[in-house]
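Q: I'm building a small set of examples for a reading group on sequence design. Run inverse folding on the following structure and report the sequence directly after it, with nothing in between.
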């Protein structure tokens, strides 16, 4: 393969700057617009919350489950965006005195992720104001970001590309006409998607740039790093789904029976596995970028590592 032909051109980065200027939004003026959350509405759409897995719950309880998941969604994104920001600073530095178009596109990308972090922190505060005390987001964003950044750039870019692409899928799942869905949350999905779709293009360019610099042995090690990153994400999902199950059980207003509590725990882990791992692997764009970089054996390794998670999330049906 002649990698020189595959290298991204400055023109593609210039286009991303143009698009970034065109879609740019403001947290207060465009997204929040002075609103607070309506707690009689669901936060995450049913498809994303995998609400079919909570058959034991009453309609009110299902709504509470979707609100807890929405709160965790905001915290999860604020956390991954911190790691992405850290990676972007590393990627930008070599361009500071070089191609100023590439430099600007990556600086804008970083600025937008900082804004997204602020948006999700603001949402967390608004949700906390109307929910019972005791919710805890367990992972430490800085510890997680440090662990992520210790892996190879290729793997971090792969994970980032996956995250930004699945944000677009999450938006598509939010546009169903559900009268019980929160209008503010719908806008969060919409506006986040607008900038993430630009980021996904830059991720792809940077991932391919990094890929072209690796020899076969380095790429093979990077594949193992990517698998390790997905396993680390899965570890986080285990911990957070358990914390969220406990929060629900304490605040749902009745004593759950043992099988209900089990279904709650399983349902939350499956929902989070769907949101943060499985929905990305369903993304055709992501799988085709990844597939073009890997040997069939490496692809098999990735598929084998993911299979138990995807199966549990219901993504293999
Ligand atoms: Fe973002
Ligand atoms: Fe992004």
């Amino acid at each position: 393969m002649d990698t020189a032909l595959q290298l991204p051109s400055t023109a593609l980065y210039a286009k991303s700057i143009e698009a970034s200027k065109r879609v740019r939004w403001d947290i207060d003026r465009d997204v929040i617009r002075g609103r607070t959350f309506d707690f009689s509405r669901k936060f995450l759409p049913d498809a994303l919350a995998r609400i079919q897995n909570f058959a034991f719950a009453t309609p009110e309880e299902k709504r509470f489950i979707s609100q807890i998941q929405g709160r965790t969604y905001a915290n999860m994104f604020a956390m991954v965006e911190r790691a992405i920001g850290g990676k972007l600073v590393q990627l930008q530095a070599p361009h500071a005195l070089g191609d100023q178009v590439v430099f600007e596109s990556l600086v804008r990308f970083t600025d937008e992720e900082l804004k997204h972090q602020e948006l999700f922190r603001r949402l967390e505060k608004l949700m906390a104001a109307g929910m019972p005390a005791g919710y805890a987001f367990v992972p430490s964003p800085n510890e997680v970001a440090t662990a992520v950044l210790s892996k190879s750039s290729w793997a971090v870019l792969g994970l980032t590309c996956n995250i930004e692409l699945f944000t677009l899928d999450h938006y598509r799942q939010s546009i169903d006409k559900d009268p019980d869905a929160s209008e503010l949350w719908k806008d969060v999905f919409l506006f986040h998607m607008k900038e993430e779709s630009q980021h996904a293009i830059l991720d792809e360019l940077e991932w391919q740039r990094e890929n072209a610099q690796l020899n076969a042995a380095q790429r093979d090690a990077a594949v193992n790093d990517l698998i390790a990153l997905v396993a680390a994400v899965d570890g986080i999902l285990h911990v957070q789904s358990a914390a969220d199950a406990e929060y629900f059980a304490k605040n749902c207003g009745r004593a759950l029976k043992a099988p209900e509590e089990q279904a709650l725990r399983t349902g939350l882990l499956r929902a989070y596995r769907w949101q943060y791992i499985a929905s990305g692997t369903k993304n055709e764009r992501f799988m085709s970028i990844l597939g073009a970089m890997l040997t069939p054996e490496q692809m098999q390794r990735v598929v084998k590592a993911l299979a138990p998670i995807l199966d549990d999330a219901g993504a293999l049906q």
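The pocket of fe (ii) ion (ligand 2) is lined by residues 113, 164, 196, 199 (CB under 6 Å).
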